[in-house]
Specification:
The protein has 16 helices and 4 strands. The chain is mainly alpha-helical. The chain has a domain at 259-388. Helix 2 crosses helix 16.
């Protein structure tokens, strides 16, 4: 691709590792051989994504209960029509079994938010590492459509996330879907200093996330999710901390981070490292890892503002040690799991973060064979600290499957 070269910049990202990121950029711009396969794969993914137009919540053909198409709306993925009722209502739960209705992008936004986040992250990373402005411009275009443009923007709330047809009581559980937006925050930070993303756009996006933080901590639904005793509560804290830091509300972030040890880990993780509420799920390994990933994200966010989440409770490391014996699939997982587990895809992002926090634990050695199963780009993403889809393996459930 022929493109204008953007100026070299550094970025104060929140979730990616800034040291690895800077080294990767320097190496990519210098044509370093060890990075070439990953950069080639990244370019290919970005070029493919550029063939599609940006997506928007305002494209739905079915309005949310508010009547405002700018409100995000998704279907709770484990709820299905009641076959004994003519209209199928109210829907019934089948834990761990994904209702394909949830992926209908003409009616719901769940699959669209995944597309948007993945595309924006790919564009921003490609633009940052290669210096090619066309990628950064694509990231900026998608961001404006989803968050900023009057005709297409999303309202900063998750009021109608994971609705259940036939059930109208307020729920907070859908808030877990907006955790994906933490990847958008890092993508926007990668765009800082580039012509594609003026300071006014960054300020507008920070303000949007500031309003989302206000809704998360102040709304009845947000407070419900904050009281959740399983992975939903942990990911709620991670979102509040990340979005508040981006929005310039460090006091809110520090408050959330300071409570993680006593409020979450001490109650969620048993003395032996097991997580009873996650082990009770039909996909117990997946949800155990999923919750620990939230702790690792909180640990990295704490490092940004001087709050030591990693050592606030020894139970976080116990939770890791409870899972690592099963990392290569040779030891049978003794708890419920509906589907075959790709242990490397599940555990690798957790171990990549934990290895930096607990250098004596040997997680770096455990990670080596797991990372080797990834593609070149997937391995680079592990080093960078990208917490979403790595690519390069047959993976776990879709990112909204929670």
């Amino acid at each position: 691709m022929t493109a204008t070269q953007a100026p070299v910049v550094t970025s104060p990202v929140l979730l990616m590792d800034p040291v690895v990121l800077a080294d990767a950029r320097t190496g990519a711009l210098a044509g370093r051989a060890d990075l070439a396969p990953a950069i080639t794969e990244l370019r290919r993914a970005a070029d493919m994504a550029m063939k599609a137009p940006p997506v928007s919540v305002a494209e739905k053909t079915v309005a949310p209960p508010s009547g405002d198409p700018h409100d995000y709306m998704s279907l709770s993925i484990y709820w299905w029509p009641d076959s004994s009722k003519p209209d199928g209502l109210p829907y019934l739960q089948r834990d761990g079994q994904i209702n394909p209705e949830a992926t209908d992008q003409s009616r719901y936004d769940g699959a669209k938010i995944v597309r948007m986040v993945g595309s924006v992250e790919t564009f921003a990373l490609a633009g940052f590492l290669t210096g090619e402005s066309a990628y950064s411009e694509a990231a900026a275009r998608w961001l404006r459509v989803w968050f900023l443009d009057d005709a297409t923007r999303m309202n900063p709330s998750m009021r109608f996330a994971q609705i259940i047809p036939g059930r109208t009581e307020p729920r907070g559980t859908g808030i877990i879907e907006s955790r994906q937006l933490m990847r958008v925050v890092d993508a926007a930070l990668l765009l800082d200093g580039t012509p594609a993303w003026p300071a006014a756009d960054q300020a507008a996006l920070r303000a949007w996330f500031g309003r989302l933080v206000t809704w998360l901590v102040g709304s009845a639904q947000g407070q419900m999710e904050g009281r959740a005793s399983n992975n939903h509560g942990t990911w709620y804290d991670a979102q509040v901390a990340d979005f508040a830091l981006f929005a310039g509300r460090a006091d809110v972030a520090k408050h959330a981070l300071a409570q993680v040890g006593a409020k979450r880990a001490a109650k969620q993780i048993a003395d032996d490292g097991g997580q009873p509420l996650e082990l009770a799920r039909t996909r117990s390994f997946h949800y155990s890892v999923f919750n620990l990933l939230a702790y690792c994200v909180l640990g990295d966010l704490g490092d940004r503002v001087g709050v030591d989440v990693w050592h606030a409770s020894s139970r976080v490391q116990r939770g890791l040690d409870f899972l690592t014996p099963y990392r290569d699939g040779t030891k049978a997982w003794p708890h419920p799991e509906l589907k075959d587990v790709d242990y490397s895809a599940e555990l690798a992002p957790v171990l990549a973060r934990a290895a930096r926090a607990y250098p004596e634990a040997g997680y770096d050695r455990m990670l080596v064979p797991l990372a080797a199963k990834q593609s070149a780009l997937g391995s680079l993403k592990l080093r960078l600290g990208v917490f979403g889809s790595l690519g390069g393996t047959a993976s776990a459930p879709p990112p909204w499957a929670v």
